[in-house]
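To make this tangible, this section ends with a sequence with its structure tokens:
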Amino acid sequence: MYMRLFILSALAGLTACTTTAPLPAFDPDLSPVEAVIVGGEGQEIGVAVLNQGPNGVLGSLTLMPGAVSPGWHGLHIHQVGDCSDAGKFTLSGGHLGKIEGGHGLLNLAGPEMGDLPNLYAAEDGSAGMEFFSDLFSLHDLRDSDFAALIIHAGRDDHITQPIGGAGARVGCAVLK
């Protein structure tokens, strides 16, 4: 009996702690976002697909061999869907849902809507990953200037400001 009460109390406490913003009503007809990822020279290096679910977005990325250097790479959603300045990708703006001092999945002042887990590339520079985020919806990406998926040169530590120490932008995809 004591254990059952403890478990119920713990579950009640967990549900009381949820602070995520409500998502728009789930639209099963909302088409997935499918985007080509381009590298520093403007060449195609992979694809990204994002699907809206009832509780968040399920995304997948596939990078071709030679796409990026082996190892960990930060991954973020940026405010503007513009990858036309290949090699820099600064036209994509800052992170979606920028919070001053709030970058990072481990940050008590965050996270920002655009914060995502890191991507790991194999020795040949290829990668594949799947992620889930309840921090944004496909509706957030489909505003008048869309959004961009940015791959960084290094690993995001999920707390250092403003981008987790992830470094230069080495890949970009327009999400619309």
Observations:
- The chain has one domain: 30-175.
- The helical segments are 2-16, 138-141.
